[in-house]
C-alpha cells in the first residue's frame, strides 16, 4: 500500500484553489447546520481532486482560516466499558448517540460535543467550549458536566476515553449557503485503551450536510462521477479496525464495500 499523496502541506497548496472562491470562519456561522440530514460518500484521493475542480466550477467556496484550507482535527470519542455506543450503531439501531471532545487545531478551540441520530435520519449536534486540559476529562468542568447530563443518555461515570482520531478536513459551502461539504483525509486512529493503531490512506470520507433533502449541486456532481452514497461512521470504522475481539461482522462488510468502491486489490488501511 502506498503512502497517502495528499499531505497536509500539499492540500493547502493545490493549484486548483486559485479557481475557487473562499469563505471565512465568521461567514460560515450562517451555515452551522447543527440539526441536519447527512449523506456520506467514500472517495479516492484522485476523485477528491476531480470533485474539488467541479465544485469550483459550480461556485462552491472553500473555508479559509488564516490562509489555511485543509485544517487539522483531533478527536477523542468516549464510550462505556462495553463500548455500548459502538454496539448500538453496529446493531443498526436508528436512534443513537456519540460523545466526543474535539480540538480544532488551527483555531486552537476545544469542545465537548454530543451527536444524536434520530429515527428519522436527522443528526443533531450540540457542543460546549472546554479547556485543553478537559479534552481527556471533561467531567471535571461543572458546566460541561451539567451540559452532558442534560443531553446525554449515558451516566457520566460510565464513560471513559475510547478512541482517538486525527484527520485533515477541507470544508466547502455552496453559493446559496444551504449546504456544507466536509472532506476528511489521512485518517489515523488509536484505541486509547490498548494503544492499537490504524491508518487509512489514499481515501477520503466526504459528508454532505443539509437542512433537508433539497436539490443539491454536489449530489449531482457526485452522481455524474458515478459515486453513490455509502453510510460510514468514522468512530465505528476506527473501533472495528483497532479493537480486537469486538463484534464487527457488519463493519467487515462495510470495509469490503469501501475496498470495492476504491478498486483496492488489498487493504486500504494498516494496523499495528
Layout of helices and strands, plus pairs?
Blueprint: H1 8-11, E1 21-24, E2 35-44, H2 45-57, E3 61-64, E4 70-79, H3 84-90, E5 96-104, E6 109-117, E7 122-130, H4 142-151, E8 160-173, E9 179-191, E10 197-210, H5 217-224, H6 234-242, H7 249-262, E11 269-271
Parallel strand pairs: 1-3
Antiparallel strand pairs: 2-7, 2-10, 3-8, 4-5, 4-8, 5-6, 6-7, 8-9, 9-10, 10-11
What does this structure look like?
With 272 residues, the chain is an alpha+beta fold. The protein has one domain (8-271): Beta Barrel (Hypothetical Protein Pfu-838710-001), CATH 2.40.320. It is built from seven helices and eleven strands. It has an eight-stranded antiparallel barrel, surrounded by five helices. Strand 8 and strand 9 form a beta hairpin. The radius of gyration is 18 Å and the shape is globular. The model has no long low-confidence stretch (mean pLDDT 91).
| Structural shape | globular
Mean residue pLDDT: 91
Profile the largest sheet.
Answer: 8 strands, antiparallel, barrel
Alpha plus pi helix count: 7
User: Assembly state here?
Assistant: single chain
Provide the spatial order of strands within the biggest beta sheet.
2-7-6-5-4-8-9-10
Please estimate the helix content: 10-25%
Indicate the CATH topology: Hypothetical Protein Pfu-838710-001
CATH homologous superfamily annotation: Hypothetical Protein Pfu-838710-001
Amino acid at each position: 500500500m502506498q503512502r497517502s499523496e495528499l499531505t497536509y502541506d500539499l492540500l493547502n497548496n493545490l493549484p486548483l484553489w486559485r479557481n475557487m472562491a473562499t469563505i471565512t470562519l465568521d461567514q460560515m456561522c450562517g451555515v452551522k447546520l447543527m440539526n441536519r440530514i447527512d449523506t456520506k460518500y467514500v472517495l479516492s484521493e484522485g476523485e477528491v481532486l476531480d470533485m474539488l475542480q467541479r465544485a469550483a466550477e459550480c461556485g462552491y467556496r472553500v473555508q479559509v482560516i488564516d490562509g489555511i484550507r485543509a485544517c487539522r482535527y483531533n478527536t477523542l470519542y468516549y464510550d462505556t466499558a462495553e463500548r455500548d455506543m459502538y454496539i448500538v450503531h453496529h446493531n443498526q439501531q436508528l436512534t443513537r448517540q456519540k460523545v466526543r471532545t474535539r480540538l480544532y487545531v488551527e483555531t486552537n478551540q476545544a469542545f465537548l460535543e454530543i451527536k444524536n441520530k434520530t429515527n428519522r435520519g436527522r443528526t443533531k449536534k450540540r457542543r460546549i467550549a472546554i479547556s485543553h486540559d478537559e479534552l481527556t476529562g471533561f467531567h471535571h468542568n461543572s458546566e460541561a458536566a451539567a451540559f452532558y447530563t442534560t443531553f446525554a443518555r449515558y451516566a457520566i461515570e460510565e464513560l471513559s476515553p475510547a478512541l482517538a482520531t486525527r484527520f485533515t478536513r477541507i470544508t466547502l459551502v455552496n453559493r446559496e449557503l444551504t449546504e456544507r461539504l466536509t472532506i476528511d483525509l489521512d485518517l489515523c486512529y488509536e484505541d486509547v485503551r490498548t494503544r492499537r493503531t490504524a491508518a487509512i490512506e489514499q481515501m477520503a470520507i466526504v459528508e454532505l450536510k443539509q437542512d433537508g433533502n433539497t436539490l443539491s449541486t454536489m449530489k449531482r456532481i457526485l452522481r455524474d462521477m458515478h459515486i453513490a452514497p455509502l453510510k460510514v461512521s468514522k468512530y465505528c470504522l476506527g473501533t472495528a479496525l483497532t479493537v480486537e475481539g469486538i463484534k464487527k461482522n457488519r463493519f467487515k462488510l462495510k470495509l469490503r464495500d469501501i475496498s470495492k468502491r476504491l478498486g483496492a486489490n488489498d487493504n486500504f488501511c494498516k494496523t499495528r
